Every structure is written in structure tokens, then in C-alpha cells.
């Protein structure tokens, strides 16, 4: 029997192109598989070849697809069932808004106390103000981590145990500043009807041009 710690990651499929999937992929790429058996409970399409037995020692990161439905998109009932029926040493929720699983926080905490696993949540916080109900939820988490410095600076006085951690960005070498002439060329191509001095604010995602 393996003596390695068992880590259950909960997040979006690391094979997809979302920022949250990127974060989980980055963490899986850094995991020490000599010390940990890793399993992933995933939202998003999971290809059949990736579905393995949980914590299979011959496969670094077996995937468990979340069989959500319109009333339980993130598989809350399925996750609770898994935590109840499997031995887990660390539950690590990655990149998910803190409110996604808040309906089952009490049950997760009860299971944590009963079964002794560590509960880590790495979440975003991009609000410009502090929401009191979010503070209640964040304080419920055993080990809360926020992946923005803005969020950390905003919350650290309200949540003493909060820490800042940002997984590395995959393909970060692709995101480099363009020279001015190339920027002007792209601006004319995509934003041809904007005045030259207009300031652009934007988001780069997999559905952008």
C-alpha cells in the first residue's frame, strides 16, 4: 500500500484553455509525485483516456469527471460522496470563485474534522471592496489562498490566515511587449474606428480575435 499523501485537486480541466485550467495544469506540472498521489475532480470535458481509477499510482493525475446537472453544475453532491467514500489527505480547490462550493462548506468542514484532511482553497478576488458575506466564507476555509496581490492586500487585515499564491503562467514567454510600430499596426487592423489617442482596456481569452 502506498504511503504517499493523497491530494484531490478540484477545478477546471487542465487540458482546456481557461485561466483556471491553466492554473491547475501548472500545479500538476510542479507536483512531487514521489511524495504525493494526485487525483483531479474536474468540471469541463474530460476525455475517456484520462479517466482512471482514483489515485492510481501508475498515472500521475487521474481525472474524475464532474457529472453536474443544471441544478448542480459543479457536482457538489458528487464531491461530498467522493470525500465520504475515499481517503484524502489534502483537498485543494484551484482557481474557483469562493462562492461556487459555499453551499457545502459546512459539510466539507465536518468531513475535514472527521477524516483529518487538510482543506486548501486558491481563489480569485477582484472586487474593489470587501464583501462581508465573502469574509464569512473565506474565514470558514482552513487554508485560504488568493491569487491576486490586490485581493491579498484588501483581505489580509480581515482574514489573518490568508496568504497570496499565484501559480506560474504557462507559455508566459509568449506574453511579451510589442514594439510601438507593431502595436500601431495591430490597432489599425482590429480597432480601426477608434481615435489614435483612445485608451483601450481589454481581456485576452480563448474567445478573442
Helices, strands, pairings?
Layout lengths: L4 E8 L6 H12 L5 E8 L19 E3 L10 H10 L4 E5 L10 H11 L2 E6 L8 H9 L2 E4 L2 H7 L7 E2 L15 H11 L19
Parallel strand pairs: 1-2, 1-4, 2-3, 4-5, 5-6, 6-7
Q: Describe it for me?
A:
The chain is α/β, with parallel strands linked by helices and 209 residues long. The protein is built from 6 helices and 7 strands, in the order E-H-E-E-H-E-H-E-H-E-H-E-H. The chain has helices spanning 19-30, 76-85, 105-115, 132-140, 149-155, 180-190, and strands at residues 5-12, 36-43, 63-65, 90-94, 118-123, 143-146, 163-164. Strands 3-2-1-4-5-6-7 form a 7-stranded parallel beta sheet. The longest helix is centred in the N-terminal third of the chain and has 12 residues, at 19-30. The radius of gyration is 20 Å and the shape is globular. The mean pLDDT is 85.
Which descriptors would you attach to this protein?
209 residues; alpha/beta; seven-stranded parallel sheet; 17% strand
Number of helices: 6
In terms of structural class, how would the helical and strand content be classed? alpha/beta
Helix content: 25-40%
Q: From N to C, what is the helix and strand string?
A: EHEEHEHEHEHEH
Q: How many individual β-strands?
A: 7
Overall radius of gyration: 20 Å
Mean pLDDT: 85
The main sheet orders its strands as: 3-2-1-4-5-6-7
Q: Largest sheet at a glance?
A: 7 strands, parallel
Unreliable runs:
none
Distance between the termini: 50 Å
Silhouette? globular
Strand-residue proportion: 15-25%
